[in-house]
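Hello Y.,

Per our agreement to keep a running log of every chain we model this quarter, I'm adding this entry. I've kept the format consistent with earlier entries: sequence first, then predicted structure.
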Amino acid sequence: MRKIAGLAAVFALTLLVGCGNSNNNNAANPNTSANGNTNVTETTDAVTSASVVNNGEDFKKAISKDGTWIAATLNDLTFTEDLVVDGQFINKEEPARKIALYTQDAEHNITNSFMLTAPKITIKSENARIQGGTFVGDVYVEADGFSVVNATIKGNVYFANAQYQSTFDSSDQGIVSGVTEVKK
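Predicted structure for the entry above:
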Protein backbone atom coordinates (compact mmCIF):
# COMPACT_ATOMS: atom_id res chain seq x y z
CA MET A 1 0.00 0.00 0.00
CA ARG A 2 2.87 2.33 0.84
CA LYS A 3 4.41 1.61 -2.57
CA ILE A 4 1.16 2.55 -4.36
CA ALA A 5 0.90 5.80 -2.42
CA GLY A 6 4.50 6.60 -3.30
CA LEU A 7 3.88 5.91 -6.99
CA ALA A 8 0.77 8.11 -6.94
CA ALA A 9 2.78 10.93 -5.37
CA VAL A 10 5.49 10.59 -8.04
CA PHE A 11 2.84 10.64 -10.80
CA ALA A 12 1.22 13.73 -9.28
CA LEU A 13 4.52 15.59 -8.94
CA THR A 14 5.64 14.66 -12.45
CA LEU A 15 2.27 15.65 -13.87
CA LEU A 16 2.51 19.08 -12.30
CA VAL A 17 6.03 19.55 -13.60
CA GLY A 18 5.07 18.28 -17.06
CA CYS A 19 2.19 20.71 -17.29
CA GLY A 20 4.52 23.63 -16.58
CA ASN A 21 6.72 22.68 -19.53
CA SER A 22 5.62 24.83 -22.46
CA ASN A 23 6.57 22.04 -24.89
CA ASN A 24 4.33 19.48 -23.19
CA ASN A 25 0.57 19.34 -23.54
CA ASN A 26 0.00 15.95 -21.93
CA ALA A 27 -1.33 14.86 -18.56
CA ALA A 28 1.74 13.13 -17.11
CA ASN A 29 5.41 13.16 -18.03
CA PRO A 30 7.43 10.93 -15.77
CA ASN A 31 11.22 11.21 -16.10
CA THR A 32 12.32 8.30 -13.99
CA SER A 33 15.87 6.91 -14.03
CA ALA A 34 16.74 3.22 -13.96
CA ASN A 35 17.21 3.35 -10.18
CA GLY A 36 13.72 4.81 -9.67
CA ASN A 37 14.76 8.38 -8.90
CA THR A 38 12.71 11.13 -10.48
CA ASN A 39 14.70 13.98 -11.96
CA VAL A 40 12.66 17.18 -11.89
CA THR A 41 14.19 20.14 -13.73
CA GLU A 42 11.18 22.11 -14.95
CA THR A 43 9.26 24.75 -13.02
CA THR A 44 5.50 24.72 -12.66
CA ASP A 45 3.36 27.41 -14.30
CA ALA A 46 0.48 28.22 -11.96
CA VAL A 47 -1.78 29.08 -14.89
CA THR A 48 -1.46 25.56 -16.26
CA SER A 49 -1.57 23.50 -13.09
CA ALA A 50 -3.12 20.06 -13.06
CA SER A 51 -5.04 17.88 -10.69
CA VAL A 52 -4.24 14.17 -10.53
CA VAL A 53 -7.02 12.32 -8.77
CA ASN A 54 -8.01 8.81 -7.79
CA ASN A 55 -11.45 9.41 -6.25
CA GLY A 56 -14.78 10.90 -7.21
CA GLU A 57 -14.88 13.93 -4.91
CA ASP A 58 -11.45 15.14 -6.02
CA PHE A 59 -12.39 14.59 -9.67
CA LYS A 60 -15.58 16.65 -9.31
CA LYS A 61 -13.56 19.46 -7.72
CA ALA A 62 -10.91 19.28 -10.48
CA ILE A 63 -13.51 19.71 -13.26
CA SER A 64 -15.40 22.50 -11.47
CA LYS A 65 -15.01 26.20 -12.18
CA ASP A 66 -12.62 26.29 -9.19
CA GLY A 67 -10.62 23.32 -10.48
CA THR A 68 -7.63 23.06 -12.80
CA TRP A 69 -7.16 23.05 -16.56
CA ILE A 70 -6.25 19.34 -16.49
CA ALA A 71 -8.14 16.74 -14.47
CA ALA A 72 -6.21 13.48 -14.73
CA THR A 73 -7.36 10.27 -13.13
CA LEU A 74 -5.24 7.33 -11.99
CA ASN A 75 -8.05 4.78 -12.13
CA ASP A 76 -11.60 4.11 -13.36
CA LEU A 77 -14.25 6.38 -11.81
CA THR A 78 -18.01 5.81 -11.71
CA PHE A 79 -20.66 8.38 -10.79
CA THR A 80 -24.41 8.02 -10.38
CA GLU A 81 -24.94 11.78 -10.72
CA ASP A 82 -24.34 14.08 -13.71
CA LEU A 83 -20.98 15.84 -14.02
CA VAL A 84 -20.22 19.39 -15.18
CA VAL A 85 -16.93 20.65 -16.62
CA ASP A 86 -17.06 24.38 -15.94
CA GLY A 87 -14.77 27.40 -15.81
CA GLN A 88 -12.35 29.02 -18.19
CA PHE A 89 -8.68 28.08 -17.94
CA ILE A 90 -5.66 29.05 -20.01
CA ASN A 91 -2.91 26.82 -21.38
CA LYS A 92 -0.30 28.25 -23.75
CA GLU A 93 -2.23 31.53 -23.85
CA GLU A 94 -5.38 29.80 -25.15
CA PRO A 95 -8.57 28.65 -23.40
CA ALA A 96 -8.23 24.93 -22.66
CA ARG A 97 -9.57 22.11 -20.50
CA LYS A 98 -8.47 18.46 -20.53
CA ILE A 99 -10.03 15.38 -18.98
CA ALA A 100 -7.04 13.02 -19.07
CA LEU A 101 -8.18 9.42 -18.69
CA TYR A 102 -4.70 7.91 -18.97
CA THR A 103 -1.13 7.75 -17.72
CA GLN A 104 1.91 7.86 -19.99
CA ASP A 105 5.62 7.15 -20.12
CA ALA A 106 8.47 9.58 -20.80
CA GLU A 107 7.94 9.25 -24.57
CA HIS A 108 4.26 10.22 -24.20
CA ASN A 109 3.02 6.69 -24.95
CA ILE A 110 -0.16 5.82 -23.09
CA THR A 111 0.65 3.21 -20.44
CA ASN A 112 -2.83 2.88 -18.88
CA SER A 113 -6.26 4.04 -20.04
CA PHE A 114 -9.17 4.55 -17.68
CA MET A 115 -12.95 4.61 -17.86
CA LEU A 116 -15.08 7.48 -16.57
CA THR A 117 -18.75 6.59 -16.18
CA ALA A 118 -21.63 8.98 -15.47
CA PRO A 119 -25.17 9.34 -16.79
CA LYS A 120 -24.20 12.68 -18.37
CA ILE A 121 -21.31 15.13 -18.51
CA THR A 122 -21.94 18.74 -19.51
CA ILE A 123 -19.06 20.63 -21.09
CA LYS A 124 -19.20 24.37 -20.35
CA SER A 125 -15.47 25.12 -20.77
CA GLU A 126 -14.13 26.37 -24.09
CA ASN A 127 -11.71 24.03 -25.92
CA ALA A 128 -12.37 21.14 -23.53
CA ARG A 129 -11.33 17.66 -24.53
CA ILE A 130 -11.64 14.13 -23.32
CA GLN A 131 -8.38 12.34 -23.99
CA GLY A 132 -6.82 8.90 -23.76
CA GLY A 133 -9.57 6.73 -22.29
CA THR A 134 -13.30 6.05 -22.38
CA PHE A 135 -16.28 8.07 -21.18
CA VAL A 136 -19.45 6.01 -20.73
CA GLY A 137 -22.53 8.24 -20.81
CA ASP A 138 -23.87 11.15 -22.85
CA VAL A 139 -21.94 14.38 -23.40
CA TYR A 140 -23.78 17.71 -23.56
CA VAL A 141 -21.68 20.50 -25.08
CA GLU A 142 -22.36 24.15 -24.21
CA ALA A 143 -19.07 25.69 -25.42
CA ASP A 144 -16.91 26.00 -28.53
CA GLY A 145 -14.04 23.67 -29.34
CA PHE A 146 -14.98 20.36 -27.67
CA SER A 147 -12.83 17.46 -28.87
CA VAL A 148 -12.32 13.76 -28.33
CA VAL A 149 -8.63 12.88 -28.66
CA ASN A 150 -7.46 9.26 -28.77
CA ALA A 151 -10.53 8.43 -26.68
CA THR A 152 -13.97 6.85 -26.94
CA ILE A 153 -17.37 8.20 -25.96
CA LYS A 154 -19.72 5.27 -25.36
CA GLY A 155 -22.85 7.34 -25.72
CA ASN A 156 -24.10 10.39 -27.60
CA VAL A 157 -22.66 13.87 -27.99
CA TYR A 158 -25.34 16.57 -27.96
CA PHE A 159 -24.64 20.22 -28.77
CA ALA A 160 -26.67 23.14 -27.42
CA ASN A 161 -26.45 24.82 -30.85
CA ALA A 162 -25.02 24.43 -34.34
CA GLN A 163 -22.07 26.74 -33.56
CA TYR A 164 -20.81 24.38 -30.85
CA GLN A 165 -21.26 21.40 -33.16
CA SER A 166 -19.32 23.13 -35.96
CA THR A 167 -16.26 23.43 -33.69
CA PHE A 168 -16.36 19.77 -32.54
CA ASP A 169 -13.33 17.65 -33.46
CA SER A 170 -12.83 13.90 -33.19
CA SER A 171 -10.30 13.60 -36.01
CA ASP A 172 -7.39 12.59 -33.75
CA GLN A 173 -8.47 8.99 -33.05
CA GLY A 174 -11.70 10.09 -31.36
CA ILE A 175 -14.65 7.70 -31.44
CA VAL A 176 -18.30 8.41 -30.58
CA SER A 177 -20.47 5.28 -30.53
CA GLY A 178 -23.76 7.19 -30.63
CA VAL A 179 -25.06 10.27 -32.41
CA THR A 180 -23.46 13.71 -32.60
CA GLU A 181 -26.27 16.21 -33.06
CA VAL A 182 -27.80 19.46 -31.91
CA LYS A 183 -30.31 18.91 -29.12
CA LYS A 184 -31.92 21.78 -27.30
